[in-house]
Amino acid sequence: MRVLVTGAAGFIGNAVAMALMKRGDPVLGIDDCNDYYPVALKHARLERARAGGGSAFAFRELDFADPGALASALEGEDFDRIVHLGAQPGVRYSLENPQAYAHSNIAGHLELLELARHRGVGHMVYASSSSVYGGNAKLPFAVEDRADHPVSLYAATKRADELMSETYAHLYRIPLTGLRFFTVYGPWGRPDMAMWLFTSAILEGRPIKVFNHGDMYRDFTFIDDIVAGVLACLDAPPADDGAAKAGGSTKPHALYNIGNNRSEHLLKVIGLIEEACGRKAERVLLPMQPGDVEKTYADIEAIRHDHGYEPTTPIEAGVPQFVRWYRDYHGL
Question: Is residue 60 part of a domain?
């Protein structure tokens, strides 16, 4: 089957595209390659996909929130399923540029739902986020938990995507699966995330910013485990049978957490990065950032039960892999 992958120049989208092509599924990728972080990294990911996929990889650079551009780029293109991973990411940046989140994450998601509806695709898998749980005190976070008290605009847009998807599954019976990702890291990762920021600073001898004085916990999930979960869900669309799905919908719409099912203390992770880098970090302890949460921890029982998902990469193995890739990418 041919799969449309949005965010194909992004961290997760590129990894999913590579995995799809490796198993024999051609990919049509779209991405606007904006400058939220260095475009050179996005172009390098695209070159990786072209080199790895050959003729199985096609790419269109466009803003998928622009209905005219989307329709024009996809005219005459066939695809069977959609993996919608393109979005404006980042909790902290949503404080500075809220309009970017409304445009990409809300208007853009709507355009992909409309595309799925009019093309009659067999299934659309889309990215949500662990941030939808807000400041929930109950741990681990389960898909049945309330998610109506977001503490950042980014989280609010991702929850809005889930609600719009529920509506489309109800009205048009489109099979949809939303995936709440938990702190994804690994080779080809994003420069705005902690793993990259800490590694970069340590190797360059700069101090690292440690928020909430280091008393933070995250369910760090290695990219290969995320990709395995995405593909498992893509291959098994939720049935339109009236039965309750993960997340509670009786429509053909399921919601799953994809995490490592372990909540790790931030200082432990910093220690692993220091060990992999071969030097200690100079730590600047700071208060909690607005819009951030103290702890995340994924209950993955739903996706484990429905799709046999089981993460295999602990941070003790994943962190050194990321640091090795980082050194190689930067020629260090």
Answer: yes
- What is the reported pTM? 0.96
- Of 36, 154, 168, 256, which residue is the catalytic one? 154
Looking at the DSSP assignment, which residues form a beta bridge with residue 128? 180
257: tokens are: 């957490």
Q: What are the φ and ψ backbone dihedral angles of 310, each rounded to 5 degrees?
A: -150, 110
> What span, in angstroms and rounded, lies between the C-alpha atoms of 165 and 322?
34
248 phi and psi angles, rounded to 5 deg: 105, -10
Asked if residue 198 is part of any domain, the answer here is no
Whose CA is closest to 17, among 7, 27, 32?
A: 27
Residue 172 known to be catalytic: no
pLDDT digits (tens, 9 = 90+) for 164-199: 999 999 999 999 999 999 999 999 999 999 999 999
Question: What mean pLDDT is reported for the chain?
Answer: 96
Q: Give the domain CATH number at 94.
A: 3.40.50.720
**Closest residue by Cα to residue 163 from 151, 150, 152, 5:** 150
Domain extent at residue 252: 3-189+220-261+297-312
What pLDDT is stored for residue 135 in this prediction?
Answer: 83
Would you call 47 helix, strand, or coil by DSSP? Answer: helix
Complete DSSP assignment for 92-143 = GGGGT-HHHHIIIIIIHHHHHHHHHHHHT-S-EEEEEEGGGGTT--SSSB-T
Give the whole-number percent of the chain exceeding pLDDT 70: 100
Q: For residue 30, what are the β-bridge partners?
A: 6, 60
Say how many domains are in the chain.
1
106/123 Cα distance (integer angstroms): 19
Q: Which positions ≥6 away from 229 have C-beta within 8 Å? A: 179, 256, 258, 303, 307, 309
- CA 137 to CA 51: how far, in whole Å? 45
- Return the structure tokens found at 328: 């190689």
